[in-house]
Fold:
Amino acid sequence: MRQLLDTVWQRRGTSWLWDEEARNQICAASEVWSLRQFLRAASNWPDDLPSNDSKTLVVAGLDGSLDLLTPDDAENWLDDVIKPAILKFQDEYQGEAALVFWLPTGYSRLKVQVSTDAVSWLCAAPHGQNQIDFGRILWGEANAYPQEILLHDGGKPAGLFHLRIT
Structure:
């Protein structure tokens, strides 16, 4: 998977972030929206986003919601609810704003298949033996496009970034 040292993820595209230092670069904890707020706003986006000089929306709760669902229900929900909301966000801000999903446990839960760059979500108990085909659902297996966010050269990935989901 390609790596990204640039800060473009702070202003554009969609990211799945698990590094607290990275999150603190773009927002204060009080500016983070719940997943419920995000889904409600999908029909009436605000003119000004809460973070990063109105360039970024950080959303928490995706991980907890996925953990409450069976793997099949989680895949359907990602496809039927989350992806359309992401697409609406992209359309509303015409690609000139960043949507960041805060996933504190994402480093151990989002797995990248090295040979194909396919991205999977590792389910929690009682479905811990299952994986959700995260990349196929959200970006249609366009595996050349997501990039690992790095805060500094040689550092651990802070998250995943995708410039535009189609």
Observations:
- The first strand starts at residue 2 and ends at 4.
- The helical segments are 20-26, 35-41, 62-68, 71-92, 106-109, 134-139.
- The longest helix spans residues 71-92.
